[in-house]
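ok so i was messing around last nite and threw this chain in just to see what happens. nothing serious, just curious
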Amino acid sequence: MPRALLSVYNKTGIEELARGLVASGWSIISSGGTAKALVAAGISVTDVADLTGVPAILDHRVVTLHPKVHGGILADTALPHHVADMAEYGIESIDLVVVNLYPFADNPSVDLIDVGGPAMIRAAAKNFARVGVVVHPSQYAPVLAEITSHGVLSDDTRRALSARAFAATRDYDAAIEQWMSGEEKSSLSLQLEHVSDLRYGENPHQTGTLYRLEGSHSWWNSAEQLGGKEMSYLNVFDADAAWKLVHHFSEAAAVVVKHANPCGVATAPTLFDAYQRAHACDPVSAFGGIIALNREVDEATAQEICNVFTEVVVAPAYSESALQVLQSKKNLRIVRAVAPQLPEYELRSVSGGVLVQTPDAVSDHPATWTVASSAQPTPEQLQQAAFAWKVCAAVSSNAIVVTQNNEAVGIGGGQQNRLDAARLACERAGTRAIGGVAASDAFFPFRDGLDMLATAGVHVVVEPGGSVRDEEVIAAANEHGIVLLFTGARHFRH
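result:
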């Protein structure tokens, strides 16, 4: 009869797993709180103390550290001398080890440094040729399903479980090392989970793969692709940029992204209107772009989207008729996703290393801003400035955005100087800039950028402030009768 050793801190799902194992002809070994929980549930259990002949001692610090436990886990029953040792010392094989560890990272202390748990996990992971090891409740269902169907775990499954187990003890030890060293930034342990292989990387001759940081709440983890070709590296990168930006708005909103930069953003009473207005910002750049929408897509909006070649559409939901319309475009990637969440930190690779930073939270509350000009803003202008500021924070630096009526009409981004960014935004806006609001992701180092916006007809400018030439810029705003707002925070995006 195969035997499983169950010893877990987090008891979620452990009763169901134990019942399933017993129903499949397995016997259960357990100890401490796990054994009590299983016995209370009416499940027959052999207590570790009965197996070893030694009760838990030293305030429960020594429970499973015994040859009858570790011998049963580590034994290679294909080797005659192992079998002889087992017979001499009364050791029986243990075929499955289910252990999760004390939650050290939640409340670091010496008492939560698990010893017996990692020892059993590592022993079972080392002997993956014969023993399965499970370290998280999310693994219970697939492991039990395989045992129920086949009686045992396959070689591939045991090897995959072993890899996950070694990762768990690695991360656990890293958290202890960090706490013991007293240096929070001495190391950063990352566990990446495979999500999908991508169609290709940035270019077709490059390979690409999507991974998820273990423990993160990635919207990609539950996203569903409902149509179209496989996603490529840039499809994912651009869709992420669009999806994050569209969720800055509570109104019905549409975002069009090209090369990770918005080329159209708008809000409106209806999703159809929002998409039409977003597309109108820069129809040339929108060709082959990514669209993100923050409402269920209706048929009329779907029909409008299909009028332009689009790589990806991301939305929270699609009506049945809208989905049929979109799926008629065989190459259009249709993604249904939940709202994104801010990650704990953002990573970017550099040669031989990784840059780490906290996410950029956009300061879009005009009440906290400073009016630097003589001209005072109206409530409507402040609202429009907040809209422009949100959009500008999502554009690559140097960035200038011109907006009208909750619609981006001119976007200039990724420029090496702010004057060129202003020129590009004004050229794209044309006469739509007249009476509009402009946002700059960083301060104006000279007045020339503001002069250009004034010449285009902009009435309000929002920027961080903080330049040594702020007074010159303020004087320029007063000369032109422009409202100038300082936010006190910049939003560079490289």
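not much to say yet. The chain has a mean pLDDT of 91.
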